[in-house]
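Many introductory courses stop at the sequence. We go one step further.
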Amino acid sequence: LSTAPNSVERIGIYQILGSGKLSWVTNSTLAVPFTDGKLRFDPTGNYLAVAGTGGIAVYQLNTSHKLVKVGSTLDKNAAFVDARWDNHGHLYAISNTALHVFTVGGGKFIATGGAHTITSSGLLDLAVLALK
């Protein structure tokens, strides 16, 4: 993730070759719709969540090694500081005021659990533990 001069962040994809070297995936650069993004792949490596100031978006990695946006950017008024996945397609994201729960799958990205208000300020990190 890099920030361009006009404050638009961009994501680019590299592929790891059998030799261990990195190879740039041609035309893989993608602008994300907000700044200060945090990147988190789901456990399968198929979905990438980008959470930042101005919302949260999810992208799917296709067979051409390119990211394709899944649904719309959600919660555009929130400033997200972190996001984590569980093993069931749920994305938990923390903003400066709430914990948000989303579901990703079947080509859709939706808010499912709503926003749960956080009463103490200054939370900067989030951990998700999958129940057995």
